[in-house]
Specification:
Number of strands: 16
Number of helices: 2
Strand content: 25-35%
Radius of gyration: 16 Å
Length: about 230
């Protein structure tokens, strides 16, 4: 069970709503427990509020909120969340994407931002070459984030398509990165571009998007908060 924001803030003696994460460069943030606004939880929500900007995620195709998470069961059909008018998405070459999630499939897209030629993060099966040319990087080995693992993933994108990935606050080395042509007018959680290839079957509890590269110290600070909130490894 998740620790929950209210219990987390009570332990810290903090106000009911205080954004504890790094805020410098934070352009979008969606949180399952704060899904209806800053510090506000709606168990019946069908929209996941952007706590920083004005872009809200809307559930599509039977996707649900459950246990303070966005739950996607793509074994029974295409489910995802979509966000249009995400005007704050960074256009610079440097960005950081952080997510607390798990997965039940071997090859999934977690987040696809619009107008950026880059995926947020994508998990592949070990033999990803069998998926054909449509599969684009960045990648890291399936074993770096095992199926059924509930934890934190951070991707830091820099110039020349460089990529650093952190799993549960620790850097992993088996990563590579590339760009992808094409764009769309909306960001999505749980699907690749506008198609249905490699969907997420799992849950997402928190997403943060930065318009700059976070430092290792900042990533560690954010992970410490997520670890306390979500009882991560």
């Amino acid at each position: 069970m998740l620790l929950g924001a209210r219990q987390f803030f009570e332990r810290r003696g903090a106000p009911a709503w205080t954004n504890p994460y790094v805020t410098d460069g934070l352009v979008a943030m969606w949180d399952g427990e704060w899904n209806a606004g800053g510090g506000i939880h709606d168990p019946n929500a069908t929209v996941w509020k952007d706590l920083v900007g004005s872009c809200d995620f809307t559930l599509v195709g039977g996707a649900t909120f459950n246990e303070n998470s966005l739950v996607l069961d793509n074994s029974s059909g295409m489910q995802y969340a979509t966000a249009s008018n995400i005007s704050s998405f960074p256009s610079s070459s440097d960005l950081t994407f952080e997510v607390v999630c798990d997965r039940n499939a071997n090859a999934v897209t977690i987040f696809k931002p619009p107008d950026a030629y880059k995926f947020g993060l994508m998990f592949y099966a070990p033999n990803y070459n069998t998926m054909g040319n449509r599969v684009s990087l960045p990648t890291f080995r399936d074993t770096d984030f095992p199926v059924g693992h509930y934890g934190s993933v951070t991707g830091v994108y820099g110039a020349n398509n460089s990529l650093s990935v952190f799993i549960d606050g620790s850097a992993v080395n088996s990563v590579s990165s590339d760009s992808i042509g094409g764009s769309q007018n909306e960001a999505t959680i749980g699907r690749r571009l506008s198609g249905s290839a490699y969907p997420l079957n799992g849950r997402v509890s928190n997403i943060r998007l930065y318009s700059r590269a976070l430092t290792a110290a900042e990533i560690a600070a954010n992970y410490a908060i997520d670890k306390a909130r979500f009882n991560l490894p």
